[in-house]
Amino acid sequence: MKKYELTPHESVTIIESTPDRLEAEVVYDPAGGMPPAHVHPDQDETFEVLEGTLEIRRGSERLRLTAGERAEIPRGVAHRMAATGDRPARARWVTSPALRTEEWWAELDAVGGEPGWKLPRLAALLDTYPDVFRLTGPLGLILPQLRFLAPRRKAEPRRA
């Protein structure tokens, strides 16, 4: 199974990857906080909490899910999520269709260890993957402008 470290506090392990769906197990460390709101323009997502507590902000809603509970996030709906409490949250995450999500995750994993990559490299990746991930709000307007500061080489994913 492939595992990707999306951030220092969020990892995903691929369970199934087909063109129609990407299923993974995600672990959110509560130390990671709440990431910025984003949308997936052409994909629907479902999260089922396996362990811990997951807070999801979906549009204007705030959901607090515990083991056995699920939330669906339709395409185009702004959302963000994080573990709450004092222990990590583990969830089953299904994205459909898969599109280039696994490639996006591999890129995030590959550049995560590069010194000084964070803002300019993330901006360049956002520019490369707008079909699977778009920031909303002020960061969605500002961050893409930093893409020109990113390193020119394309990162290779880490090999398992």
Short description:
This protein has 2 domains: 3-96, Jelly Rolls (Sandwich), CATH 2.60.120; 101-149, no CATH class.
Rough outline: globular
Average pLDDT score: 86
- Total discrete domains: 2
Order of helices and strands: EEEEEEEEEEHHEH
Largest sheet: 6 strands, antiparallel
Radius of gyration: 15 Å
Determine the fraction of residues in helical runs and give it as a percent range: 10-25%
Low-confidence stretches: none
Describe the structure.
About 20% of the residues lie in helices and about 40% in strands. With about 160 residues, it is of the alpha+beta class. The chain has two domains: about 5-95, Sandwich (Jelly Rolls); about 100-150, no CATH class. The strands form three sheets. Strands 1-2-3-10-5-8 form a six-stranded antiparallel β-sheet, with helices on one face. Strands 7-6-9 form a three-stranded antiparallel β-sheet, with no helix packed on it. It starts with a strand and ends in an 18-residue tail after the last helix.
Primary descriptors:
160 residues, Jelly Rolls, 2 domains, 6-stranded antiparallel beta sheet, 3-stranded antiparallel beta sheet, 39% strand
SSE topology sketch:
Elements: E1 3-7, E2 10-17, E3 22-28, E4 38-39, E5 44-51, E6 53-58, E7 61-66, E8 70-73, E9 79-84, E10 89-96, H1 101-111, H2 118-128, E11 134-135, H3 137-142
Antiparallel strand pairs: 1-2, 2-3, 3-10, 4-11, 5-8, 5-10, 6-7, 6-9
Helix pairs in contact: 1-2
